[in-house]
């Protein structure tokens, strides 16, 4: 399905059909979309956690005010951003960049210094916020790829982040949860699928200046 047709087809799923699963190929396709969407400077300052355990999903559902997608979706991705971005992470990124394009690390020193300069000019809170924005872009990639494949999805940020972090042991890993992408197939009983899309008229959303 063309991407715009897919975006018109999709909707925010509230009830998934928990009997329907996704194949490994489908999950891998969605993961590739998440991996290949760009991030600022290419840093990908987040991790994407896949939660299979029924027990953990139950706990997450409770921490998400009982939202049923957490236990009914075929697959759950939790996007978690790094709470900091230190020189070690910059070094690892420079190493990966150098190896990928066969550039000597010395030639990347200017870029490394520039990145370290930007990061050191920010407070830890600003870094975490910046990183979380990148995670949302990755969530958008998941939603778009799922729509294109006619895989149903629910984006979610209505959850207690501190509780999620605790359940998933994220603090110890320097991560904090940002948003969720639940994917699978809609339940025929989900009433939301019958609603018309609510979107602004194009001339309200877009404005030509100059
Ligand atoms: C970042 C983000 C977070 C969202 N969080 C929730 C949520 O926690 N629970 C929920 O039921 N819907 C959630 N939604 C769904 C939106 O309410 C929904 O996408 C919006 O109303 C547009 O409807 P549509 O997706 O059906 O076109 C979220 C959507 C986005 C993009």
Describe it for me?
With about 210 residues, this protein is an alpha+beta fold. It has one domain (about 5-85, about 130-205): NADH Oxidase (3-Layer(aba) Sandwich). It has 9 helices and 4 strands. It has helices at about 5-10, 25-35, 55-65, 70, 85-100, 110-120, 125-150, 160-170, 200-205, and strands at about 45-50, 75-80, 150-155, 175-185. A 4-stranded antiparallel β-sheet has the order 1-2-4-3, sandwiched between helices. The longest helix is centred in the middle third of the chain and has 25 residues, at about 125-150. It is globular and about 60 Å long. The model has no long low-confidence stretch (mean pLDDT about 95). Flavin mononucleotide (FMN) binds near residues 11, 12, 67 and 179. The site of flavin mononucleotide (FMN) has 10 residues, from strand 3.
How many structural domains in the coordinates? 1
Bound molecules: flavin mononucleotide
Sketch the major β-sheet: 4 strands, antiparallel
CATH superfamily: NADH Oxidase
**Into which percentage range does the β-strand content fall?**
5-15%
The CATH class is identified as Alpha Beta
The best one-word shape is globular
Count of strand segments: 4
Number of helices in the DSSP assignment: 9
